[in-house]
Amino acid sequence: MASTFSALKFELIGTGEQSGVWGNTTNTNLGTAIQEAITGSADVTFASGTVTLTLTDTNATQTARNLRLNLTGTSGGAQNLIVPAIEKFYLVNNGVADAITVKNSTGTGIAVPTGKAMLVFNDGTNVVDAVTHMSSLTLTTALAIAQGGTGATTADTALDNLGGTTVGKGVFKAATAAAAQQAMDTEVGVDVQAYDADLTALGGLAKTDGNIIVGDGTTWVAESGATARTSLGLGSIATQASSAVSITGGSITGITDLAVADGGTGQGSYTDGQLLIGNTTGNTLAKATITAGAGISVTNGAGAVTIAATGGGAAATKMEIFTASGTFTKPAAATDVRVLVVGGGGSSPNTQPGGGPNPGNGGGGGFAYASVPIAAPVAITVGSGGSRPGGGQAPGVSGATSSFGAFVSATGGAGGPNGGNGASGGGTVTTGTVIKTGNMRDLPSSIAFFPGMIGNTNKSSDRNALAYPLTSPSWAAGAYGSGPGGLNNASGGMNGAVVVEWIE
């Protein structure tokens, strides 16, 4: 009969087996298997997962046979320790950072807290606490609060340790309700109001919206607004119509801003420095602040508005004239930047039909004059005048467009046709405030900061332009943006110009 193995894997020698050598097996059973089961200790290492212990048919050393299991390693959270489903005690010492539940492959098991040791019993179906009852417990020192005790041997000390205050301890030790009230400074008739029928009456009143509590001579009652007005002795103001209220003394709050027509301002709020300015539209008052002009600074503040001269004198008007394309960079102190853009003039034709005199005139360039809101540098394009046409009866050539960035532009004048005058250009303000636009005939003799800088080349055509200066004969294109008068031989148009002015 072959050997078999017990639940703890002790080798049970079969009858007639191991004749002459059975002592070797017995020694292993006694010295290894039985010793592990009674006093053995083994480490069980966790690596962030469940650990399963098994028993195989050998009486050699096996971890699951040991009495004490010392849990080590890294748990990585609460884990399970699966032990063989046999009846056995285990002393489990949890040395990992999380609770470990000791169980069979089935059953709920029992959790061993981190840092604690527990004696558990494996009944073959489930693992349970081996010690379920203590008949008595004697401590040599007071059980600490962290272990569920009070850390004291007397009631007063225990109350102190548990955070008891003078009031709290007084209430805890009070033998009567009156003593407890006294400890809490809530003694009826001394610290708090005793029962009162009037308070009960108040508490029982209906909480209807608009009700007012008044005394009727016997108790407290809730009355409607209309009834309460009589009880309270209010005068007629309480019932006056909104259009006929007479108020003497006191103050009024929570009303709509009083209109100008009713003697008010129509305004409910102001910021520092705001003044009221009359507005004929609707007979209203508008809020406004004082705005500084050239050479003036304004400080709008609470209770005062200060106006002062800047720069130590009158503001200086400055100008930059561009007769060729370039870039304008606004000076740091510049204000009220204005720009005059003039397109190039168209050229006259070569001859009129039949070769007679005055074949036609070139058209003057358009212009645009505007106030522009600039900060960054602006690219300037100066349109060229129309080139002189070739031989024969060739018509004139149109002048090119001038521009001040994307703010202002002016188209060039058209070249003169044979036997006629070329049309004038026009001006456009895309971004900014228009002061004046048109063709060179519309340009006045004095414009803003440019007195005396406007002139004509030929009164009979659209060739007015910037005269800077006018030195050419009446038939020539002598000023910026002008078109020439007609001769037997053609003449080219004058280039345009861009003039920028500002105040410092």
Number of helical segments?
A: 6
**How many domains, as an integer?**
3
How many DSSP-defined strands?
29
Q: Overall mean pLDDT score?
A: 79
Could you name the ranges where pLDDT drops below 50 across 5 or more consecutive residues?
A: 445-477
| Helical proportion, percent range | 10-25%
Q: What coarse outline follows from CA principal-axis ratios? A: flat
The percent range for strand residues is: 25-35%
Mind telling me the C-alpha Rg?
A: 55 Å
Task: Note the main attributes of this structure.
five-stranded mixed beta sheet; 29 strands; 3 domains; single chain; alpha+beta; five-stranded antiparallel beta sheet; 504 residues
Polypeptide structure, described:
By secondary structure, this protein is an alpha+beta fold. The protein folds into three domains: 4-129, no CATH class; 145-183, no CATH class; 316-504, no CATH class. 11% of the residues lie in helices and 26% in strands. A hairpin with a 3-residue loop joins strand 23 and strand 24.
In short:
By secondary structure, this protein is α+β, with helices and mostly antiparallel strands.
